[in-house]
């Protein structure tokens, strides 16, 4: 019990560092997508700093677990995790979106060390994950493939094509994650294109669905373990989150889907994150 | 039949046959279908190699994405379906999931141009090569016969990156004597001549050869080039044809926009201007009907090629 408490506390502290780097790099770039990066931070911290089998010194290691950021605009959170995990210097983060930077506006696996896929056009990532999971199965390898999607992204039809394929091939080595923060670019998901309930939809497609609080580290760790236990069904973690989580003035504010951060706003954000909003 | 043209098979049939031999050389090869495997002639492959054959149903966008994922996992996926669906329904997946990261996916698209004749415009892929040509990192090929399909498919599998190969629904004559006749990116001169050049691709090569025979009967020596690789285009072959014959006609079973005619015109404009005409669909959908009657109605027959050759020759200064 003590061990788990220590692990959770450690990851919660790590998530704070990730959040600060997200704010710092978007402030430096003067553009980017903070809202959805912050809502996914606890999930990605759990993956990159605990759950996934990785070796930053050997980024192309064949047996590593794979991560695909289907909602590619939230790359700041992945870039921060990779830097803090030691794939490249943390200073590199300040070149986000800059001319000739290795950190493109959306993930480019040919430019950024540690990325497993190129993404950015919504709806395409789950199919990549299905292909990777199939490849693992065919090659009799035991790595897992994780795909993070947005809730607005669930509008895309290709996702549901991929959903069927994963069930057909019984891809128990595929774990999808929906960052259900309730806001998409133009407004609340239930007014732009209602998809309620996502858990019900995924379950009806034949997936193992685990619905959790996407900011509760204990629940996240538990769900990630549970997902790996079901060997003949793909799993979908439907995670209830808050867009802009951790920064008071960004939480649940649709305008912070994307935008520039001023110096004063950055200081305020650091204080909020440290305090734990 | 002329000496050059002998009874042949469709290039999709040649594809189905050649696939059976590929796993011996390419151990990571997989074939992905979208519920038209009988038509794509991949059924035998599926029987022979059930573990290498994946049928992902009627969902082409996902088909491309899964192929990309399999390539990320170290496999060599060949995606099989019709040109219309692979090039248009799944175009952005081809662009962003496959071409941008330059993944090792081969796309084999049958029913190119008017060869699906009676199926009608929904199944006649007339824009596909132009769309594919516009995407960086993509190679675009259309073999003229069964032998060249074998050569070009095999070579495509050795390229580390995306390749689009366009096939015919119906039989095309054999033009080559055997395999080992074609190299990706290198045009083949099938008929020598210095009065005009007919640059053709795919099923239209046969009609260009026939037009050259009609011209020869009048003492006009037309060069015929099989431009099986639309991209990267063999620019030197185009420039040589322009400088040595002084007039060019392009011949394609495709829209006159963005395909072979456009690609050749681009090279001529930047390098060596000579009179030129394009044979192809002139900004129109076709309709159901027998292939050869459609070619005639839409200005793409042997007679049209012959006529265009005479016109460009007349324009030579």
How does this structure look, described?
The complex is a heterodimer of chains A (277) and B (317). In chain A, 43% of the residues lie in helices and 12% in strands. With 277 residues, chain A is of the alpha/beta class. Chain A has one domain (2-275): Rossmann fold. Chain A has a five-stranded parallel β-sheet with strand order 1-2-3-7-6, sandwiched between helices. In chain A, strands 4-5 form a two-stranded antiparallel sheet. In chain A, helix 1 (2-29) packs across helix 4 (75-84), helix 1 (2-29) runs antiparallel to helix 10 and helix 3 packs across helix 9. The longest helix of chain A is centred in the N-terminal third of the chain and has 28 residues, at 2-29. The model of chain A has no long low-confidence stretch (mean pLDDT 97). Chain B is an alpha/beta fold. Chain B folds into two domains: 11-166, Rossmann fold (3-Layer(aba) Sandwich); 188-315, Rossmann fold, CATH 3.40.50. Chain B has helices at residues 11-21, 37-40, 43-48, 60-72, 83-89, 91-99, 128-133, 146-158, 204-216, 235-245, 260-271, 291-297, 302-315, and strands spanning 29-33, 53-55, 76-82, 106-110, 139-141, 163-166, 188-191, 196-200, 222-226, 229-231, 248-255, 276-281. In chain B, the strands form two sheets. Chain B has a seven-stranded mixed β-sheet with strand order 2-1-3-4-6-5-10, with helices on both faces. A five-stranded mixed β-sheet of chain B has the order 7-9-8-11-12, with helices on both faces. In chain B, helix 8 (146-158) links the parallel strand 5 and strand 6 (163-166). Chain B starts with 10 loop residues before the first helix and ends with a helix. In chain B, 60% of the residues are buried. The mean pLDDT of chain B is 97. Classes of the chains: A alpha/beta (277), B alpha/beta (317). Chains A and B meet through helix 5 and helix 6 of A and helix 4 and helix 6 of B.
């Amino acid at each position: 019990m003590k061990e788990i408490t220590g692990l959770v506390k450690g990851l919660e502290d790590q998530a704070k560092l990730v959040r600060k780097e997200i704010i710092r790099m978007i402030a430096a770039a003067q553009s980017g997508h903070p809202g959805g990066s912050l809502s996914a931070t606890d999930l990605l911290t759990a993956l990159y700093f605990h759950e996934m089998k990785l070796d930053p010194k050997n980024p192309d290691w064949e047996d590593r677990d794979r991560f695909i950021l289907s909602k590619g605009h939230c790359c700041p959170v992945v870039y921060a995790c990779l830097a803090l995990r030691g794939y490249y210097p943390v200073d590199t983060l300040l070149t986000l979106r800059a001319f000739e930077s290795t950190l493109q506006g959306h993930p480019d696996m040919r430019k950024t060390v540690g990325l497993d896929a190129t993404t950015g056009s919504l709806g395409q990532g789950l199919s990549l994950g299905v292909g990777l999971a199939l490849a693992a199965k065919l090659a009799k390898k035991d790595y897992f493939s994780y795909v993070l999607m947005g809730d607005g992204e669930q509008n895309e039809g290709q996702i549901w094509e991929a959903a069927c394929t994963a069930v057909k091939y019984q891809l128990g080595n595929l774990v999808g994650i929906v960052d259900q923060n309730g806001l998409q670019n133009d407004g609340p998901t239930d007014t732009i294109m209602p998809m309620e309930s996502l858990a019900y939809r995924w379950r009806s497609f034949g997936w193992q669905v685990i619905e959790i609080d996407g900011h509760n580290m204990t629940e996240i760790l538990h769900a990630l373990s549970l997902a790996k236990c079901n060997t003949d069904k793909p799993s979908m973690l439907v995670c209830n989150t808050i867009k802009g989580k951790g920064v008071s003035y960004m939480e649940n504010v649709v305008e912070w889907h994307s935008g520039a951060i001023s110096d004063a706003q950055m200081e305020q954000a650091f204080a909020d994150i440290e305090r734990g909003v | 039949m002329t000496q050059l043209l002998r009874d042949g098979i469709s290039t999709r049939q040649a594809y189905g046959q050649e696939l059976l031999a590929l796993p011996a050389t390419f151990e990571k090869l997989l074939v992905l279908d979208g519920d038209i495997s009988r038509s794509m002639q991949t059924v035998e492959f599926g029987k022979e190699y059930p573990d290498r054959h994946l049928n992902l149903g009627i969902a082409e966008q996902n088909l491309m994405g899964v192929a990309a994922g399999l390539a990320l996992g170290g496999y060599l996926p060949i995606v099989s379906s019709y040109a219309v669906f692979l090039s248009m329904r799944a175009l952005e997946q081809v662009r962003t999931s496959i071409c941008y990261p330059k993944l090792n996916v081969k796309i084999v698209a049958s029913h190119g141009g008017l060869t699906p004749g009676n199926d009608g415009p929904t199944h006649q892929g007339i824009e596909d090569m132009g769309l594919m040509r516009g995407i960086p990192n993509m190679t675009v090929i259309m073999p003229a016969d069964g032998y060249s399909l074998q050569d070009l498919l095999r070579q495509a599998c050795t390229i580390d990156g995306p390749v689009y190969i366009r096939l015919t629904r119906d039989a095309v004559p054999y033009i080559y004597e055997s395999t080992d006749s074609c190299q990706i990116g290198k045009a083949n001169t099938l008929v020598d001549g210095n009065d005009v050049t007919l640059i053709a691709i795919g099923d239209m090569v046969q009609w260009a050869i026939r037009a050259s025979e009609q011209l020869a009967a009048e003492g006009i020596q037309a060069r015929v080039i099989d431009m099986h690789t639309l991209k990267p285009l063999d620019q030197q072959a185009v420039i040589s044809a322009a400088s040595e014959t002084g007039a060019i006609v392009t011949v394609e079973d495709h829209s006159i926009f963005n395909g072979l005619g456009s690609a050749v015109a681009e090279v001529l404009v930047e390098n060596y201007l000579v009179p030129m005409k394009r044979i192809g669909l002139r900004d129109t959908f076709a309709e159901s009907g027998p292939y050869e009657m459609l070619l005639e109605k839409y200005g793409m027959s042997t007679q049209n090629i012959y006529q265009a050759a005479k016109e460009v020759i007349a324009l030579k200064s």
